[in-house]
Amino acid sequence: MSEPYETQESLIHIARFRAAVRIGDEQIERGETGPYSKELMEQIGQRAVQHAKQGKKIDNPAVLP
Questions:
Q1: Per-residue pLDDT at 2
Q2: Residue span of the structural domain in which 17 resides
């Protein structure tokens, strides 16, 4: 551990975050992205609300609380 306040759990979260960023960078390099827009954010928000109402759990280790 590089800092005394960092826990093993926080180091795991940092590693997962960095890996996700690396994957995203690679997707950008390959042109595998879509435009960011207000409509896209609304769709994502609506889907999240629907899933919450349906009681669906988030089963993705990349999503951190």
A1: 56
A2: 8-53
